[in-house]
Every structure is written in C-alpha cells, then in structure tokens.
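User: Hello, beginner here. Can you help me understand these amino acid letters and fold codes? It all follows right here:
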Amino acid sequence: MNRPTDLPQATAISAALTLLQGYPTDLIEAVRRLIEQGRLAEVLHQRHPEPHAVRSDPALFDYVNELRQRHLRHAPPLSRVCYDPSLRRVHQALGTHTAVSRVQGGRLKAKREIRVASLFRDAPADLLRMIVVHELAHLKEPDHDRAFYALCHHIEPDYARLEFDTRLFLIQLQLQGKPT
C-alpha cells in the first residue's frame, strides 16, 4: 500500500508514463521500475553519453542541411532551421516543418523551414539527430505512415530505439520538474 507521501510521486510517474502509450505493458513496467529505483537518468546517460555541439541556429541549419544533402539530395532546400523555445508548449510538438508558398512575379515560391524544440540544445547528440531525421522525412512524406517510417529508418537505421529513448528523455525531464 502506498504511504500518503508516496501518492504525489506515484501520480507524477503515472502522468509521465503517458508518453509511452501504445508500447507493451512489460516495457512500461520496466521503465516504471527504473524510475522508482532512480536509475532512468543513469540508463539514458549510458545509452547516449555524447553531447552535441549544435548550440546556435546557424549551427543547427548547417547540421540539418548536411543530413539533407547526404540522405535526401532531391528534397527541396530549406530556407530556415532554428531552435524554438515555445514549440513544446504551443504545438505539443518536438519539431515542426512548414512550407509557405508565395507568388513572386509569375512564379510560385515555396519557403520551407524546420523548427526544433529548444530543449534539444541540451539533449544527447543521438536524440537531436532523431528529431532532425523525423522532420527531414516530412520533406518527402507528409504523413506518419509506412513510407514515412521507412524513410526515417533509411536515414537513421536505429530510429525506433532513438524515438523510444527520446520519450524516456522527456519523462526524465518531466520528473525533474524541468519544462518540456
């Protein structure tokens, strides 16, 4: 039975674990045990020890364009890539991609941009890469369907594990009381 002082913590853990909806119950319980043992941050650090040096918007633009050139040469160019501090709160998203079309003279011009939630400035390098791969895949595949995930796995073969670990990273931030 839970002691009265354990109830807020149990509620916080349950709320955080909603990020894992759709995953198998045994996997969710394994994560719950890691949280209760206070080992989630340690496990994440063991899996993803490398920080990244992509701190500024120009560095993020270069990083994203390098991946686009390497894996999606025929994808349309990006006009802007930046970190966005309001992204998670406003859109409930970790990254967004937009295309704005404008008539310029007799032509239709499209400007594409990718925004990445600012919390990824301090995330491990692998998790930033997962978000960038996800948003780049949307340049070719607009929907989250089989073709979209096939493209994500083509660019990043370990995409599924990185997506799960990104959810664990968000849970860890939430449990630490940091805004996600």
In short: The chain is about 50% helix and 15% strand. Confidence is low (pLDDT under 50) at residues 1-5.
